[in-house]
Every structure is written in structure tokens, then in C-alpha cells.
Write the C-alpha cells for this entry.
Amino acid sequence: MVPKINILVTGAPGSGKSTIIQRVIEKARQQGLSVGGISTPEFRLSNGRRGGFLIRDVASGTEQIMAAVDIESSFHVGRYGIDIQAIREVGVTAIDTAVLAANLVLIDEIGKMELIVPEFRRSVLAALNSSKPVLGTIGLRLRIPFANKIKHRSDITLFTVTPNNRNQLFAQICTMLEI
């Protein structure tokens, strides 16, 4: 059984946050543990440019486009329109289900786009307050009060990843999670 611990990984874009998360998912599953929660991979357009981000339930594989350059929305982060309903339908549902049924809850990522949705914030707090271990990523320069409160919770272990320490952090996180 994985011990109760809340671990967040932060770092600059491209530093390896999501890579660490993916490696932990693989290792946990190899040991027969169930993993639930979300990932938010980018997707590319035919011209090779980033078109936006998906939101994916890591347990079921269900995914929707969360943000894209061509989404008409009253909510934007940079050039991306945000699909609030996709965050609710996939993100909130995946986190809530993971808290109920998984051995390990993943939240990749707690970011500006996701935090627009109040239900997402509620699900993040419910996961952190649950008896389940939580592993997530959070933006390094995210200046949203909700994110700052999470980073400074007494029950959070916050790691800053760099290209130089990502392998060491992967091993340290696996040790902490006892996987």
C-alpha cells in the first residue's frame, strides 16, 4: 500500500515535470497499483505548431480538448480558448473517481487553465485532504492565490525539477511513495 503523502513537482516548462509523472505511473502500474487522475498533454497542428492541450483521464484513457487556439470561449489563457465543460467532464470526474478507487491520485497539472473551474479546485482540495497519496505538477510561476496556498500547505512536499535533477527526483519520489 502506498503511504499517504502529497507531492507536487514544479519547474520551468520543459524541465521534466510530466516526464517524472509518466515514469512514476509506469512504475506504479508495474507493481500492480491502480493509478487515477489526469494528465494534460499538448497536441500539435499539422504545421507542427502547438494547437492546445488535452485533458486525459489516466485510468480510462478518456480525453477531450481542454484548450485550443480555435476554441471560442469567454475564458482564455494566452492564445488558447478554454473548454470549461471538458475540464468538468474529464478532469473533475477523473480526480474524484481516483480519490474513491485508485491507489495513487495524479494531477498533472494544477495550472491556470484548470484552475478557472471552481469544481476543479474543489476536486484538488478533496484529493489533497483524502487518505490517498497525491502526486501532481504545479506551475513554477503560477501566481494564483489558490495555487500559492496549495504550495505552502504543511502536508505538501514540493520539489523543483531541473534537467539536471530529474532522474534523482524520480528516484526520491518513488522512495517516498514506496514503489
